[in-house]
Specification:
The chain has 358 residues and is of the alpha/beta class. The protein folds into 2 domains: 100 residues, no CATH class; 232 residues, 3-Layer(aba) Sandwich (Alkaline Phosphatase, subunit A), CATH 3.40.720.10. The strands form 4 sheets. A 7-stranded mixed sheet has the order 10-12-18-15-11-14-13, sandwiched between helices. The longest helix is centred in the last third of the chain and has 20 residues. The N and C termini lie far apart (86 Å).
Length: 358
């Protein structure tokens, strides 16, 4: 190869590497909307307490990094995709926007997350997927486990309820952690993540449309350990699980099933179950109707708090309490299913049961 061909080859290599590397952009180059009044358009950037920015889909190709948008070095962040993928932000990774989506790519231009929905900066240490592994660890150590799922109870709701006197029991617990939900933050996907320990991309449930799990749940593991589990639900089954849930109708016609779920859970106390998994829906129902921080929802949170206190006092073993997703305010009440901190960050509590609460 003569010098001319060598130079031509080097130039081509430089061009290829330049094309695949993330170009330097500024926040002004990437138009964004910080109002968060649009639903699932482009990509949202949040942390555990704030909705930071919305990055729209552009009409022409744009490549940018997270640092370009936030104008600071980010050491810890997670990107989530439309099908529930969860990937850490890499040092040389960047985003590529086209007419239909924003993709997360590596330094070689390979797509890591197709259709990135959101990025959370400095995410909580816990995930709702930890629920599976915490349940499994306690069960393998010979501890019985009571798992309480408070549907639609975001961490910001917990904080507001605590500060305003609506959590007389849970507010007294010494350690309440934040946990990250999954995308899409709806009951099917959240519940699936909790009982499998897998992301929606792995367990196959990433929206309200899916009910079939593609991996074993904690209920199958309990059977394999030759232990007994009881799954208590509201008035419908959410997912197809290895054991049938005990369903509870709204027998007294008050518009909620939580009093019936509470009664069914209390009836299970003192029996030989190693895992009792109970799902309260009323906070979510009230939040949809009245709003996530409304007085009506706060009063309902206080009602559920009393249920939890009574159940916890009767249980001899470990107790795990979390939510499948949170909820944000809307013009007509509340909703969830978006990549925003109100929907994505929930409380996570582990405590011992027993009569020490009396």
């Amino acid at each position: 190869m003569d010098n001319k061909h060598i130079i031509t080859f080097i130039i081509l290599v430089v061009i290829i590497l330049s094309a695949s590397a993330c170009p330097k952009s500024t926040s002004n180059d990437v138009n964004h909307d910080s109002s968060f009044d649009r639903k699932d358009i482009g990509m949202n950037i949040i942390d555990s307490e704030n909705n930071i920015k919305n990055i729209p889909v552009f009409n022409k190709r744009k490549v940018f990094t997270l640092e370009d948008i936030l104008e600071e070095k980010i050491k810890n962040a997670i990107v989530m995709g439309a099908l529930g993928e969860i990937k850490p932000i890499e040092e040389y990774g960047c985003f590529e926007s086209n007419e239909s989506s924003i993709d997360y790519i590596n330094k070689d231009g390979q797509i890591i997350v197709k259709e990135a929905i959101g990025v959370i900066v400095n995410p909580p240490m816990n995930s709702i997927m930890n629920s599976y592994y915490d349940m499994l660890s306690f069960l393998e150590e010979g501890e019985d486990v009571l798992f309480i799922l408070l549907d639609g109870f975001g961490y910001h709701q917990y904080q507001y309820a605590f500060e305003n006197g609506f959590l007389p029991f849970l507010g007294k617990q010494p350690k309440i952690n934040k946990a990250l939900s999954v995308y899409k933050p709806v009951t099917n996907a959240g519940l699936a993540a909790i009982i499998t320990g897998k992301s929606p991309a792995e367990n196959g449930v990433h929206s309200r449309k899916q009910r079939e799990l593609e991996t074993d749940s904690i209920f199958k593991v309990v059977e394999d350990l030759d232990k007994k589990a009881l799954y208590i639900e509201g008035n419908i089954g959410i997912l197809k699980t290895e054991i049938e849930p005990v369903l509870n109708l709204d027998n007294n016609g008050d518009g909620f099933t939580d009093d019936e779920v509470y009664k069914s859970t209390m009836e299970a106390m003192g029996k030989d179950y190693n895992l009792v998994f109970t799902h309260f829906h009323g906070i979510d129902d009230s939040g949809h109707t009245y709003g996530d921080l409304s007085l009506e929802t706060m009063e309902f949170i206080k009602r559920v708090d009393a249920y939890v206190e009574e159940i916890a006092s009767k249980w001899k073993g470990k107790i795990i309490i979390t939510a499948d997703h949170g909820m944000h305010s809307t013009e007509y009440g509340g909703d969830h299913g978006e990549f925003r901190y109100e929907d994505m960050v929930v409380p996570y509590i582990i405590m011992d049961g027993g009569n020490q609460f009396e």
